[in-house]
Structures are given as structure tokens and as C-alpha cells.
Write a structure and sequence with these properties.
By secondary structure, this protein is an alpha/beta fold. About 25% of the residues lie in helices and about 30% in strands. α1 (about 15-30) packs parallel to α3 (about 65-75) and α5 crosses α6 (about 195-205). Bound molecules: flavin-adenine dinucleotide.
């Protein structure tokens, strides 16, 4: 077998909360997993979109930051030694040798006896503003999400957008940034009413500058480091905002991409599953988390956790038709291998 070809019991597509917990649940029924994600880090939406936001509806945790949920899921899965293939999208899912062969955008091949697709809304990316030379600045001084709030301490930050992310981060960064400017093409924002009130108060105190109605026009800088952001209004008026960083918050576009071609019985942007097993139209392929649809589905992290357990048990039955699972609580069996 080549270095890029692997064999495992279950291939998990997507390392969001549902996929990570599927590794644990599969481990508890003695099935090993390889996990593939198109993002560079595990955690799905929690790590990519809102790592520092507190979540209030994870059972047993009255309040927990999203990144901490991810870290704990990784820790919980660790005894089962999952193999992660990150920064690569699963492009192909084909039947092979009684199982499935997954091929990624980096050429990695994973042969699995069963597959759990936990791909959320699909591989997602930010809506990018149409600015010349934007790519040179991305990841250096233009960011589509705030991974570490502290990185903006003492910086002059331009935030673009009028929704919750733009308003929430303007409020938050006003506490530590040297200057926060919010560029929005309308005078009215589209955020939670209490956040809008807070933003208006900060603007009045001079702690945030509202640059409205303007939109982004051009970037100035060198070697990826911004010096200024140029903005324009609808009448052709322009302004130059000296800045160290630009945070465009224009939402995300998610695309199921190749998943739509795998014959999984798509229902719009979702995969229709049997809610008792999370089985798809292909025997041996399960879908869980935000991707999976059935009547009454609640798109919540906790729903994905329960579906991970259902899919792991169903996969066990599928792979061991002659050996019924002897169901045991974790309190009885412990964590095998831990
Ligand atoms: C701002 C915000 C706040 C939220 N707050 C809450 C909350 O308080 N409580 C709550 O329960 N839920 C909340 N949610 C929703 C929650 O984040 C989702 O329900 C959850 O992330 C779904 O988990 P998942 O594992 O199904 O998918 P995701 O987290 O979307 O992860 C899917 C992963 O699959 C990967 N992927 C997709 N296609 C491929 C492919 N072809 N190859 C490789 N990888 C692929 C993606 O890159 C992604 O990493 C919130 C969401 C947002 C955006």
C-alpha cells in the first residue's frame, strides 16, 4: 500500500463536532476511524467561525467556549487513535472491494468499510470582497474570522459589513484595538437590537468610528501588510482609512461541492437519512450533523452528537451482521484502549 493509501473501518468526512464525536462512538464499538477535513484545523464551524464565542446549550456545560468544545472532543476521541487528514477535500467516494474508496484533493486515498459523512453545510469559505490584490493580504492583514482576539490589541482595525459578526467584533475589539472603524454601505445595521444600541453608544463615545454609507474600494500596502483601506460612497466620494488590519464580514458561502455527485439522495443542500440509523440511500454510508435531514431535524451540536452514536451503532451492525452488538454503557465498559 502506498504512503498515501490507507485502510480503516470507518472514514469520517468532516471534523466538525459531529465527525469528532463519531470517532469516539465508533471507538466504543471497536471501529477505528480516519477523519478527513478540507480545513487546516479540526472543529468545523466552531473552530472556523466562532472559536471564542461561548455556547450555552452543550449538555453538562452551562457555558463553554466553542474552541474548548473542540479541544475536549479531540481529547475524548484520542484513545481510539484516529488518523486525521486535514487541509484536503474528499472529492471522490466510490465503491471498492466490498467497501468504499475515498480520494482527496491532495491525492490521499482512504479505503473504508463504512463511511460517516459529517460535512455540515459542505466545505465553506468566506464571501470575499472584490478588491484588487486581495489574495496577497489574506491571512497576513486581511482576516475573515478572528482566531485570537489578542492579535488585534493596539491595532487600527477596519471592519466591513453590517451584520452580527461585524457589529459584535466592533464592540469586542473596541476594548483592545487602537482604533476600530466599521464600514457599511447603509447607515442601518442588521444586528441584534441590543448590539446595535451598544455600537451606537460606542460611536458616540468616540471608541468606534462608523464609516457609513461607504463600501470597500481598494487596499494599500506592501508585502501583504495593509497601510490603508480606501472606501467610496455611492456619489463617488472617497476616504482613506489608515489601518493595520481589515476584517471583511460578508458571510460565508458553503458548497456541498463534490458531495452532490456521490448519489447520496440529496434533499436540497442536505442528505436525507433514516432517523433511526442515519443511513443514507447507500448501504454502509451514513450522514450525521447539519448535513443530515429528516422530519423534525434540529440543527444543533447536541443533535449531531446523538446522530454520531446512532450512525456508529448502525455501522457496527452493517459490518457485523452475524455478531449482534452487546450494548453496554460507558460506565460499564470504560473506554477501550484508554
Ligand atoms: C455563529 C454560530 C453560532 C452557533 N451557535 C450554536 C450554539 O450555540 N449551539 C448549537 O448547538 N449550535 C450552534 N451553531 C451551529 C453549529 O455550529 C452546527 O450545528 C455544527 O457546527 C454542525 O456540526 P457538524 O459537525 O455537522 O458540521 P460542521 O461544524 O459544519 O463541520 C463540517 C466539516 O466538514 C468539512 N467538509 C465539508 N465537506 C467536506 C469534504 N468534501 N471533504 C472534507 N471535509 C469536508 C468542513 O470543512 C467542516 O469542517 C452555531 C453556528 C454558528 C455559525
Amino acid at each position: 500500500m502506498s504512503a498515501r493509501r490507507h485502510a480503516t473501518d470507518i472514514a469520517v468526512i468532516g471534523a466538525g463536532p459531529a465527525g469528532l464525536f463519531a470517532v469516539f462512538e465508533a471507538g466504543m464499538v471497536k471501529l477505528r476511524c480516519h477523519v478527513i477535513d478540507s480545513l487546516e484545523a479540526v472543529g468545523g464551524q466552531l473552530a472556523a467561525l466562532y472559536p471564542e464565542k461561548p455556547i450555552f446549550d452543550i449538555p453538562g456545560f452551562p457555558r463553554i467556549d466553542a474552541q474548548e468544545v473542540v479541544d475536549r472532543l479531540v481529547e475524548q476521541a484520542r484513545p481510539f487513535a484516529p488518523v486525521y487528514h486535514l487541509d484536503q477535500q474528499v472529492e471522490r467516494l466510490a465503491r471498492e472491494d466490498g467497501g468504499f474508496l475515498l480520494t482527496t484533493s491532495k491525492g490521499t486515498e482512504v479505503h473504508a468499510r463504512a463511511v460517516i459523512v459529517a460535512a455540515g453545510a459542505g466545505a465553506f469559505g468566506p464571501n470575499r470582497p472584490p478588491l484588487d490584490g486581495l489574495a496577497d493580504y489574506e491571512g497576513k492583514s486581511v482576516f475573515y474570522l478572528v482566531r485570537r482576539r489578542e492579535d488585534f490589541r493596539g491595532k487600527r482595525v477596519v471592519i466591513a459589513g453590517g451584520g452580527d459578526s461585524a457589529v459584535d467584533w466592533a464592540i469586542s475589539l473596541s476594548e483592545i484595538a487602537a482604533r476600530v472603524m466599521v464600514v457599511h454601505r447603509r447607515a442601518k445595521f442588521r444586528a441584534a437590537p441590543e448590539s446595535e444600541v451598544r455600537l451606537a453608544a460606542l460611536a458616540k463615545e468616540g471608541r468606534v468610528e462608523l464609516v457609513t454609507p461607504y463600501q470597500l474600494d481598494a487596499l494599500e500596502g506592501k508585502a501583504g501588510q495593509l497601510a490603508a483601506v480606501r472606501v467610496k460612497d455611492l456619489d463617488g466620494g472617497t476616504r482613506r482609512l489608515e489601518a493595520d488590519a481589515l476584517l471583511p464580514f460578508f458571510g460565508l458561502a458553503a458548497s456541498l461541492g463534490p458531495i452532490a455527485d456521490w448519489g447520496l439522495g440529496l434533499d436540497g443542500h442536505h442528505v436525507a437519512v433514516d432517523p433511526a440509523t442515519c443511513g443514507t440511500s447507500i448501504p454502509g454510508v451514513y450522514a450525521i450533523g447539519d448535513l443530515a435531514a429528516y422530519p423534525g431535524k434540529l440543527k444543533l451540536i447536541l443533535t449531531g452528537f446523538a446522530e454520531a452514536a446512532l450512525a456508529a451503532h448502525a455501522a457496527y451492525d452493517f459490518l457485523n451482521p452475524d455478531q449482534p452488538l452487546h450494548f453496554q454503557y460507558s460506565t460499564s465498559q470504560g473506554v477501550p484502549g484508554a
